[in-house]
Design a protein that fits this description.
The complex is a heterotrimer of chains A (296), B (430) and C (319). Chain A has 296 residues and is mainly α. Chain A has a domain of 201 residues: MetI-like (MetI-like fold, Orthogonal Bundle). Chain A contains 14 helices and no strands. Chain A is flat, with a radius of gyration of 25 Å. In chain B, helix 10 packs across helix 18, helix 14 packs across helix 15 and helix 18 packs antiparallel against helix 19. Chain B is globular and about 65 Å long.
Chain lengths: 296, 430, 319
């Protein structure tokens, strides 16, 4: 956001409209809300429909799991029961949870620090460093998989939680997004803080972090999800059964020639729930406008 | 710059094998044990693996540890090998083996096997693991391909046992009758990949066709047999008999049960899949139909044990493979037989084990007998082609089957690509 | 929050005597630099070790022939020369360009559209947002199965639905003419919630007063969008345009591996799939790295262009 225009909103406070006009505005907003509700509702249903099939099919027995009927003829929770008892699925969920949460928290912290420096501080080499950081986004996963494996192997981190967590923390994505976000902060806030005698760390803690709530909420969901659903890196970086993550757990219902689709669907459904809960929880935060212009 | 790069790469990987702990048990990467779930069939297979390893560990100083590596043919194994940290013992598929042979990664097991043992293995199936006198892997099972059919679907279409097709024309005709009667069609793989090639080869072999000449120096792909086989699969799709996408996520059991398919080309492993998921289904099987003037033929799949020549103890690894699958004593033969007919429904890779399996009642069911007597004898091991040749064949199949390609053109193009590649190929005979 | 920082603070530093202010200014600059490096270091170290080093290694590998078992032979530019004469490489690159031209605007517009629709409060909006994001959450293995099932010829849900309308559906995933388009649709379905999320975060960045003023001024929805929303969204838009291009070009691999294996008849073999195939199916890590390097160059060029057009993504003259 151009910082110059951000400091010049038309700071007029128009008088409240007369009663009749207000009622008209309220009715207009009701109609608008009803329209939105309908349109969004239809899109949401169409979008979620394929997933509804997944959900209902996970309650079907193995004989009809891939039938074209949407609803099971004899609903059962046996699939879920099996998923949790025959396979250490709880352990897989736990592993994924530990990894995803740790990576998310640490990444948010590190990335926002770096983004703050790149967006708000002036120093030599800033743009060069930003470009260098940015260009790490350009990698293609299959090409760096083996080199990364070599590096992690050399560091002795294979087959450990550290080996799953640490490499996942560092990515330019969060830095880039946060930097864009921090560019829009009015300079006056920091200048005032500096005049107050605040050090950069204080500015970071007292101004930047509180302002980041909504963007952190968005990134938290994305980081958590990326790590929760990661498959390739855990596959090559671990051999220990105790370290298996959720996506590998789903694969454990694939035999060499066939798949137990009823268990796969049940496992995938369970695996999808945590992220949906987190998203559901955070989505209001993301949309809340924390940032008024600050000029009132 | 180049030297620096080479040094960097070497320093990171080259000394991988020596820096890896020389102590510690040898690692055996497999997709059976430790079992990923409690399913009885899965557990039975894991138990066989564990019992074999346990017995070895009790009788030998070098210890072996089983490591469960899912989706073994994938990134996991490639990455480990590329980084110089490949497992000491592992399961290898037929299609992959040429890369490993040419990379000098596999220990020659011949010195560790008695001649009696080597002769005991069925040669047509062994051939792809052998170069001259050297044996680079030992098969643990044989999985022939055949055509399964759904008896309920046949009944509903008014067909009987007498209608089982024996020729290509009959196959298309019966498939047409089934589809017209509202039953599912005839399924062959449509997803491109090694598996599709594997399933397609026998249709070409039946007409006497080969991909390579006998001495392996030139392509024999451009032949009438190839054209006929490509045309057969093409007709299947064009006539609406073969679905363009395998039904039910490529699951034969669900497809037969739900009526999405009536005939399906698959391997002997499907018998145990039906046992597990739909034991009451009325399943039938018949050998692949032949073209006019053609000979019966089918592909033989199945995995094998291999020892890593760059592992920590190639000698012990090789001894283990030879002992586990190539022992000629009673226990060794029984071990192989038990794997094939008790934990799975496969054909044993050795004559003596097949005899033992017969005694164990492994072939008492009609389906297994059909495989043993009518299907297996005409089988040939899945060829070991390097990626470029695999791709040339795959492109031809895909083009004809799904993209309306002309079979004669595709056969010619494929042969050209293969010949071009062979100009620079240096390695074991294909 | 605005109350915490009192704009009427002590007199600004410029009122000090000139000589002292120069020294104070350079001190300030040094402090700023030190602080910047401190803030940057954890990430820089981690990025270097776990991203930059593997990246550089892979670029070095592009000049080698690798047999996949630890054998490295220096071959100079042979891999690059091979690329030029490799019809499969050229085909996949062409396909990828088409794919990019459709998908990047598609994701941008769908993400923005959805975000605009769900940014306000109305009953059940939270549930709807979750429903729109849900596809992105599910394991790709299951996404592939679901769509494989929905799109099955004749028996699949889509085919049946179209059949009732009298249309014979083509084979969405089994016909080379349709497969890439189908993958595009599925990818948009899968990813639009992701971009919706980022746009939502960017939209909330726009101070509410701007909208209040605009509506009091009598601006209609389109005018509001054009004059208030769109300009304020520039940093987010820039970000999404850039990262979505990168993501579309270098990502989506698992979707292709599970859903189509690059087929039918290579019609969905995008460049990322081709690289994967060369590396992990054929063991040609050197050649794969060479292709990867070319991809990096293409993306660098595109990024450089976008950065130049937007002055480093800052969209300002000063700063």
């Amino acid at each position: 956001m151009p910082t110059d225009t951000a400091t010049a909103p038309p700071a007029r406070h128009a008088p409240a409209p007369p009663t009749g006009q207000r009622r008209f505005l309220v009715r207009r907003s009701h109609r608008k809300k009803a329209a939105l509700f309908t349109v969004v509702g239809i899109i949401a249903i169409i979008t979620a429909f394929p997933l509804l099939w997944m959900i209902t099919s996970s309650f079907k027995g193995p004989d009809e799991v891939l039938s074209t009927d949407i609803l099971p003829s004899a609903p059962t929770v046996d699939n879920f029961d099996y998923v949790f008892t025959s396979v250490p699925f709880t352990r897989y969920l736990f592993n994924s949870f530990i990894i995803s949460v740790t990576v998310t928290v640490v990444a948010l912290f590190f990335h926002s620090m770096a983004a703050y420096a790149l967006a708000r501080l002036k120093f030599r080499g800033r743009d060069t460093i930003f470009i260098a950081v940015f260009s790490t986004l350009l990698v293609t996963a299959p090409v760096v998989l083996v080199p990364l494996f070599l590096v992690v192997h050399r560091l002795g981190l294979l087959n450990s939680y550290a080996g799953l967590i640490i490499p996942a923390i560092f990515s330019a994505f969060g830095i880039f997004l946060l930097r864009q976000f921090y560019l829009t902060i009015p300079a006056e806030l920091e200048e005032a803080a500096i005049l107050d005698g605040c050090g950069y760390w204080m500015i970071y803690r007292k101004i930047i972090l509180p302002m980041s709530k909504s963007i952190f909420a968005a990134l938290a969901v994305l980081f958590f999800l990326a790590n929760w659903n990661s498959f390739l890196w855990p596959l090559v970086a671990t051999t220990d059964q105790d370290l298996q993550v959720v996506q590998l757990g789903i694969v454990s219902f694939f035999e060499e020639h066939s798949a137990d689709w009823n268990y796969v669907l049940a496992a995938a459904f369970v695996a999808a729930i945590p992220t949906l809960i987190i998203f559901g929880f955070f989505q209001r935060k993301i949309v809340e406008s924390v940032k008024t212009s600050g000029m009132k | 710059m180049a030297l620096a790069g080479a040094a960097a790469a070497a320093s990171l990987s080259g000394c991988g094998s020596s820096s890896a702990a020389a102590e510690g048990p040898l690692q055996f990467w497999n997709f059976y044990a430790p079992p990923p779930s409690d399913d009885p069939a899965t557990v039975a297979r894991a138990q066989w693996m564990q019992a074999t390893v346990d017995q070895w560990n009790a009788e030998n100083s070098e210890q072996i540890e089983l490591v469960f590596a899912p989706v073994l043919g994938s990134e996991k194994l490639s990455t480990a090998f590329a980084a110089g940290t490949g497992p000491d013992i592992f399961l290898i598929s037929p299609g992959d083996i040429i890369r490993y042979i040419n990379g000098d990664v596999l220990v020659d097991l011949e010195p560790y096997l008695s001649q009696e043992a080597i002769d005991d293995f069925f040669p047509d199936n062994m051939a792809t693991r052998v170069v001259g006198d050297q044996v680079f892997a030992l098969p643990m099972e044989i999985e022939p391909l055949a055509l399964y059919y759904s008896r309920p679907a046949f009944e509903q279409a008014g067909l009987s046992e007498g209608d089982i097709p024996a020729t290509w024309d009959e196959l298309l005709d019966i498939a047409d009758k089934l589809v017209s009667a509202g039953q599912g069609g005839w399924v062959v793989p449509t997803t491109q990949g090694y598996y599709q090639n594997f399933v397609w080869y026998p249709w070409m072999w039946q007409g006497g066709g080969r991909v390579m000449s006998d001495d392996g120096t030139s392509a024999a792909f451009d032949s009438q047999a190839t054209i006929d086989a490509l045309t057969l699969w093409k007709s299947g799709v064009e006539l609406g008999l073969t679905p363009r996408v395998e039904p039910a996520g490529d699951d034969i059991v669900s497809s037969f049960v739900e009526g999405y398919a009536s005939m399906w080309q698959s391997g002997i492993w499907s018998i145990s899949d039906f046992q597990r998921k739909a034991p009451d289904f009325d399943l039938g099987v018949f050998p692949l139909p032949v073209p006019p003037g053609g000979e019966p033929a089918t592909s033989l799949g199945g995995w094998a044990f291999a020892a890593n020549a760059m592992g920590r103890n190639p000698d012990a690894a090789a001894r283990f493979c030879a002992w586990a699958l190539g022992s000629t004593d009673d226990a060794g033969i029984t071990r192989v037989a038990e794997w094939c007919v008790q934990t799975k429904t496969d054909i044993p890779p050795r004559q003596s084990a097949l005899d033992r399996a017969n005694e164990m009642g492994g072939f008492d069911t009609e389906l297994m007998r059909t495989f043993r007597d009518d299907i297996f004898p005409s089988g040939r091991g899945e060829p070991r082609f390097p990626p470029v040749i695999y791709k040339a064949v795959s492109d031809a199949i895909q083009s004809c089957q799904l993209a309306g390609g002309d079979a004669a053109d595709q056969a010619a193009t494929g042969a050209q690509a293969i010949d071009a590649y062979l100009q620079t190929y240096e390695g074991a005979q294909l | 929050m605005t109350g915490a920082i009192d704009t009427a603070g002590p007199a600004p530093a410029t009122h000090k005597r000139p000589g002292r202010s120069r020294a104070a200014a350079s001190d300030l600059a040094k402090r700023e630099r030190r602080a910047a490096y401190l803030f940057l270091s954890p990430n820089l170290i981690g990025l270097t070790v776990f991203v930059a080093v593997p990246m550089l290694l892979s670029i070095v590998l592009a000049f080698f022939s690798v047999d996949g078992f630890g054998g490295y032979t220096f071959v100079g530019t042979a891999n690059f020369e091979r690329m030029v004469g490799d019809p499969q490489f050229i085909d996949s690159l062409g396909r990828t360009m088409i794919y990019l031209f459709v998908l990047v605007p598609g994701l941008f517009l769908s993400g923005l559209g959805l975000a605009l629709l769900v940014r306000s409060q109305f009953p059940l909006v939270g549930l709807f947002r979750t429903a729109l994001f849900a596809p992105n959450v599910v394991s790709l293995v299951v996404v592939a199965l679901i769509w494989n099932f929905l799109l099955t010829d004749d028996v699949g849900f889509v085919a049946k639905l179209l059949g009732r309308l009298g249309i014979t559906a083509p084979s969405w995933l089994g016909d080379p003419s349709y497969a890439l388009g189908t993958v595009m649709v599925i990818t948009i379905w899968f990813s639009m919630g992701y971009y919706m999320l980022i746009f939502l975060a960017g939209l909330q960045d726009i101070p509410r007063e701007f909208y209040e003023v605009a509506s009091i001024d009598g601006a209609g929805p389109w005018q509001t969008f054009r004059n208030v929303t769109w300009p304020m969204l520039k940093p987010t838009s820039f970000f999404i345009l850039l990262t979505s291009t990168i993501a579309v070009m270098t990502g989506g691999l698992e979707m292709l591996v599970i859903l189509t294996s690059g087929g039918p008849a290579n019609s969905t073999t995008l460049i990322v799939y081709y690289v994967y195939q060369q590396a992990f199916v054929y063991g040609e890590f050197g050649y794969a790295s060479a292709i990867g390097s070319i991809m990096v160059l293409i993306l660098l060029a595109w990024s450089a262009l976008l950065f130049a057009l937007t002055r480093g993504g800052r969209f300002t003259h000063a700063d």
